[in-house]
Amino acid sequence: MSFPASRFPERDEDGFGPDDLLRLTGVSRETLSKIHSYLAVLDDWRERINLIGPGEGRHVWRRHVLDSLQLMKKISADDLRVADLGSGAGFPGLVLACALAERPGASVTLVEKSVRKCQFLEAAMKTVGLPGRVLNQRLEDPAPEERFDVVTARALAPLPKLMGYAYVWLKPSGKALLMKGRDAVTELTLARESWTFEVSIGTSLSSPEGQILTVSALGPRRA
């Protein structure tokens, strides 16, 4: 395969690369091609606006792409509407859109408060040909009328606040895939003071300290 030019290394400094990504996630080579194209757009834009740190290219495949793509194992065939909150540089939202592009009827809504980052996200979606849209808004602003099958968020906010964001974007039957670190259990305890929910906790493929929370039946705790 040939991919758009990018100055990101072909492999991370620890040797992890695209072949490892295919082995661990089982995604298609078409999805991998789209991810390469997205990374080329990210590479082009990262010098214009603050998208990722200058040293992140040394571990982009494991820390960012694998970290995002592993969520596909938790997105079922019936989950067609995904909203990524606080999309930033596109992790996990744009990576998920690359994978969901093969699923008829699927789309990803990227929610981001920064105008410049929204411009980048729109450019990436257009260049790669990804299904979805970009919403330039703060999460404190009213959510659109549409509700989503899946809501994703990565390093966005403490869980008590993040549950509130997810609640207004999710369908009642939907689930939130929330990417957290080593303090996930402590944050869950605090979140239960204000919210009721069911949760399963999985260890991240990209980091032994990372936790993926699958939250469903989310609702405010009644006094």
Question: Could you please describe the fold and organization of this structure?
Answer:
With 223 residues, the protein is an alpha/beta fold. It has one domain: 3-Layer(aba) Sandwich (Rossmann fold), CATH 3.40.50.150. The chain contains 7 helices and 7 strands. It has helices at residues 18-25, 29-45, 60-69, 93-100, 115-128, 159-169, 184-191; strands at 81-85, 107-112, 132-136, 148-154, 170-180, 195-203, 211-220. The protein has a 7-stranded mixed sheet, sandwiched between helices. Strand 4, helix 6 and strand 5 (170-180) form a beta-alpha-beta unit. Helix 1 runs parallel beside helix 3 and helix 2 runs antiparallel to helix 4. The protein is globular. The termini are far apart.
Please specify the SSE layout and strand pairing.
Blueprint lengths: L17 H8 L3 H17 L14 H10 L11 E5 L7 H8 L6 E6 L2 H14 L3 E5 L11 E7 L4 H11 E11 L3 H8 L3 E9 L7 E10 L3
Parallel strand pairs: 1-2, 1-4, 2-3, 4-5
Antiparallel strand pairs: 5-7, 6-7
Helix pairs in contact: 1-3, 2-4, 2-5, 6-7
